[in-house]
Amino acid sequence: KACFPIKVGAGDRFFNVPCLRARRSLGVKVDGVREQINGVTSFIDASMVYGPAKLLADELRTFEGGKLKTEKTTDGKGRLMHEDLPQLGVFKCRNKTINMDRCPHAGDPRANVFAGLTIMHTAFHMEHNRIAGKLAEQNPQWDDERLYQETRRILIATMQKITYTEYLPNLIGPHMMDVFGFNDPFTYDPDVDASVTNVFGADAFRFGHSQINGPLKITNQRSPGLSEIYFLPEVMLEENGGVMKVREWMTWRMD
């Protein structure tokens, strides 16, 4: 029963086990039918930046100038070198079994799982602060709450724009964009049910995992497999590579 329902055939070239364990997600009965519980929102609302609930959103805020918290790194003379996601204590990391001194904190707990995710979280986190700074310059009369909410609206719109005009056209192609009406004029409808179906959320959505390239290039001399750097966000700080090399790897295409 522990291995239901994924059996591994004899002589499999990769898995040397009789079967793979598959744990079911938490569920709840709705009209007598078992349904999945979704821990995040179904909308494209930048919840990976701000969190799915107010408690986490507030934890990430500075409550000054509409900005989010960051971890500042300085050189020996106190000059700012770069800013990163705020850090959690080691014992609050998602993985507590390894010796690590960095644990990025973001709207989604998986920000410290994989360096590629960490970079994406960092990029949008910093973009929020950049926009907030610009809005503060142009609207000095706005308080922290106004700056935060207006910036959040802009970042959400940015993510929606990227999703529908850049990501989806490349993913499903122009024909399917027309089939689903994604190129048609539209107006906002607050009555649309944005819930994700069980079959998509629990199964089909995993197709994205196969879009990740192979070994992660951290430096010119080091390209570990993805399984070797899970929960090791500090790899981005390695000399002669780190963030820039991971960014190069993320934008590399396999034709």
From TrEMBL:
GO molecular function annotation: heme binding; metal ion binding; peroxidase activity
InterPro entries tied to this protein: Haem_peroxidase_animal (IPR019791), Haem_peroxidase_sf (IPR010255), Haem_peroxidase_sf_animal (IPR037120)
GO biological process: response to oxidative stress
Keywords annotated in UniProt: Glycoprotein, Heme, Iron, Metal-binding, Oxidoreductase, Peroxidase, Secreted
Gene Ontology CC entries for this record: extracellular region
UniProt entry tagged with the keyword Oxidoreductase: yes
Binding annotation for heme b: H209
Localisation: Secreted
Translocase as UniProt keyword: no
Name this polypeptide is given: Chorion peroxidase
Organism: Elysia marginata
